[in-house]
Amino acid sequence: MNLNYPIMLRLDGKKVVVVGGGKVGERKVSGLLGTNARIILISPEVTDHLNRLAGSGMIEWQKRSFSKDDVEGALLIFAATNDNELNQSIKKAASDQQLVTIADDPEESDFHVPAHIQRGRLSIAVSTGGASPIFARKIREQLEQQFDEQYKDYLDFLYSARQRILKEVKDPSRKRKILTAIISEEFLNSPHREADFSHLLQEINDIENDV
Fold it and tell me: Distance between CA atoms of 122 and 149, rounded to whole angstroms?
């Protein structure tokens, strides 16, 4: 069995092509929103939701059938039509350096879109390697309960706190100590998180200044 390689992609400014304007294409496009990718949708007809996205300028809808030239320059390609023969032709139109996922043929796809939850900077993806997408969704639902909306603000705090620690704390052992301290339940649930952190950072700085 060949294992998949998990990866988080930065798609800012990258061309991503979705072929198919039905419900499957809608799900693929929805998952790409917020990445700042250049989303190109190829389909003669689209769902109402996709039509609204195109009208708002969030995606570029080219109202026509697929042409092999459509994949030129695309990093990712989603073959999301209900026509297996067309999906396979989309795959063949891509070069070896392009990644294609085929909605009805996971075995021939270069990548899969996992079940996914997003809490601000926190991103958790679940894949069963095609064994059971339903089970992957079940795990995602469990994770959604475990990692609720409070984690969005908490991850923003961890990001800004880490920047200050890396800048202000010089001693490696003290740096590790405070980085470990801020991922505790105490900091997660504290109503005075920023003040608690400032106090802890000041203590560390005082110690370093006394050395």
Answer: 10
Q: What is the pTM of this model?
A: 0.84
d(C-alpha 44, C-alpha 125), whole Å: 32
Cα–Cα distance measured from residue 144 to residue 146, given in angstroms and rounded to the nearest whole number: 6
- Rounded alpha-carbon distances, angstroms, from residue 189 to 150, 182, 193: 9, 11, 8
Q: Are strands 122-126 and 115-119 parallel, antiparallel or unpaired?
A: antiparallel
* H/E segment holding residue 6: none
- Residue 1: the pLDDT is 65
Q: Is the pLDDT of residue 2 over 80?
A: no
Instruction: Write down the H helix ranges in the chain.
Output: 23-32, 48-55, 84-93, 133-146, 150-168, 172-181, 185-189, 193-210
**CA-to-CA separations, 153 to 70, 141, 187, 198, in angstroms, rounded:** 40, 20, 12, 17
Burial of 21 (0-12, 13-18, 19+ CB in 10 A): buried
Q: From CA 172, how far away is CA 197, in angstroms rounded? A: 18
pLDDT tens string 67-126:
999 999 999 999 999 999 999 999 999 999 999 999 988 889 999 989 999 999 999 999
